[in-house]
Batch of 3 targets.
Target 1
Amino acid sequence: EVQLVESGGGLVQPGGSLRLSCAASGFTFSSYWMSWVRQAPGKGLEWVANIKQDGSEKYYVDSVKGRFTISRDNAKNSLYLQMNSLRAEDTAVYYCARADWLDIVAMVFWGQGTLVTVSS
Amino acid sequence: DIQMTQSPSSLSASVGDRVTITCRASQSISTSLNWYQQKPGKAPKLLIYAASSLQSGVPSRFSGSGSGTDFTLTISSLQPEDFATYYCQQSYSTLGTFGQGTKLEIK
C-alpha cells in the first residue's frame, strides 16, 4: 500500500524557517517525480514544487523561488521542503504527492498534509 | 504561466441532478487536464486524467471532456457523497496550476 506521511509543520514567526518531511512507503520511491502542493485555509490548491527522480531537476512556483528548496533522499525514501524567510501568506496545509504518468502527469497518491502557520 | 479558470465557483444541486463544471485554460493545453475531488479536511482525490479518462475506482457517473482550452466535468446523477469541492489542474507545463475550485453544495 502506497503511503505518504508528512511531518514538520507547526507555528513559526515571519522570517523564520521550517523543514517539512514526507516519508514514503509501499512503492519504489526513486522511480517517481514527487511534488509539494499547499492549501491556504479556506482557499484552493497551489502546486509548490516538483523534483525529478534523481533530484537533478527541480521546479518552483514563482512565489517561493529563492526561499523554498525541495530535495529528496532516495536511500531514506524521503522528500523534503526547506522553507526559509517564511511569510504570513505561506500559511497552509502542505501535502506531498506522487506524480504518476497516466498519459499525462497526475497525482494519484497524496499524504494527509501538515499545517504550517506563519504568525507572530 | 498557464492560468486555469473554473466556473461556477459554487453550485447548489440536489441528489439525482446532472451537474457540469467548466474549466478554461489561458492557452491551449491539449488534453493535459486532470480533475480532483476534495472533501473537508481530506487530501484531494484524482477523478479524471487526460481530460476524459476515468481513474480506477471512480464511479462511472463522473465523466470529463474537452481539449485545447475548454474542459468540462459532468456528474450524471449526483449522490450524497459527491458534495465536495472540485478542482481542475493542468499538467501541460512543469508546474501544474489548479483552478480556483468549484464547491458543490446540497440544495
Target 2
Amino acid sequence: AQSVTQPDIHITVSEGASLELRCNYSYGATPYLFWYVQSPGQGLQLLLKYFSGDTLVQGIKGFEAEFKRSQSSFNLRKPSVHWSDAAEYFCAVGASGTYKYIFGTGTRLKVLA
Amino acid sequence: DGGITQSPKYLFRKEGQNVTLSCEQNLNHDAMYWYRQDPGQGLRLIYYSQIVNDFQKGDIAEGYSVSREKKESFPLTVTSAQKNPTAFYLCASSLGGSRGAETQYFGPGTRLLVL
C-alpha cells in the first residue's frame, strides 16, 4: 500500500541555522512528490514538486528538495531558516492513474530567535 | 485574482444538525477535493470530483455528502450521521486530466465545531 512517512513530528531550529525535513514514501512506481506548508489556521501552500527530470528541485521561499529513488526519500532543505518559516510542513505523494494524494502526518517547525 | 474560497471560516453545529460548507474556485479547474484535517493525522480525503455531476468517495466519506452541479462549486454537507465532525476542512482543486501528476491548490479552510 502507498504511504508517506514524516518521522519528525516536531523540529526546533535557531534562526539562521540550516533545516532538513525528512519524507519517506512507499510506492511501487515513479511517484509524484510534493511539499506543502501550512501556517496556523490557514490552507496549504505549495512549496515545490517533483514529477521527473532533475532530482534536485527548487521551490519558493528558498526551499529545495532532493528526490532519492534508492532511499525512497524526498527531503526538504533550507540553508538558513527565517522566523517566518515557523509552520507545519506536509509531504505528499500523487499516485499515477488516480487523483488521490497520500499525505504525511506533518512536521511542525519552531524557529528560535 | 484566481483562487479558492471557503466559507464560513468557522461553523458551529448542534447535535443532529446537518451543516454545509461552501467551496468555490475561479481557476477553471475540473477536479475538486474535500479533505479533513485532524491534529497529528495529516489530511484525509473525504470526496473528490473529476467533472461536473460526478464525484467519488474518498477514504472517509461516511457521514458526508457532496454535490457538483457547477464547475466552480463543490459544497460539502456534514450530516448528523457524522458522529465526530469537529475538524478543519480543506477544499482543493486541480486542472484535471493528469491523474497523480497534478498540483492541488488549497482554500483557506473551514473549522467546524460542535456545540
Target 3
Amino acid sequence: DTAVSQTPKYLVTQMGNDKSIKCEQNLGHDTMYWYKQDSKKFLKIMFSYNNKELIINETVPNRFSPKSPDKAHLNLHINSLELGDSAVYFCASSQWDPGQDNNYGYTFGSGTRLTVV
Amino acid sequence: RKEVEQDPGPFNVPEGATVAFNCTYSNSASQSFFWYRQDCRKEPKLLMSVYSSGNEDGRFTAQLNRASQYISLLIRDSKLSDSATYLCVVNLDYGQNFVFGPGTRLSVLP
C-alpha cells in the first residue's frame, strides 16, 4: 500500500493550460504539503495544510491554488501554466508534535514531473 | 545568511571510506532536525532524525551542536548503495515549516 500517492507521475502540457495534480495519504497524518524541486534540485515549500486548513503559503504565484477536501487529500491546481513552472512537484505528509524529540519528519510521494512546452 | 546551508559537493569516496557531511542553520529557535537521502529521480526519504544527544543507526551517526547551530552526518564503511544526495532538514520555528538544505551529493566508487 502506497503511503503517499500522487498522480499523475508525468505531465507534459502546453503553456497557458490549466492542470491539476492530486495527492492522497493513508498514514492518518494531520499535515500535508506541496514542495517544488527545480532543475537545480532545491526543494522549496509551497503550501502546507493542517486538518484541511492552510497554515503555510509561501511566495507562490496565485496561479497555484491548493485544495484540501479532507485531511487525507491535498490537490494542487495550476492555472495558465508557464515555462518556469516546469519542475518536479512533491506532495508530503507528516504527523508532528511540537516539543517532542521523536518526530519522524515527512513521507513524500514519488513526485509529479511537470514539463511545460 | 541562508536558512540552511550544507557542504558543497560532490563527495567522491572509495568503498569502505568514512565520510562526514555538515549542515548549518540560521534560526536558533529551530527544534527538529533530520537527514534525508534522495536518489536520482526519486523522492527524498527519511534517513534519520537528529536528536539532541546525538544518535546512531548502524553505519550512520548524526550529531547536533546547538551552540554552533550545526548538525552532522557521519557514514562509516561506505557502500556503493550509499551514493545519493543527502539533504539536511530543519524546522524554522516551533511550527511545521521545514526548510531543506541544498543537499550534498555523495558518490561511492568501487
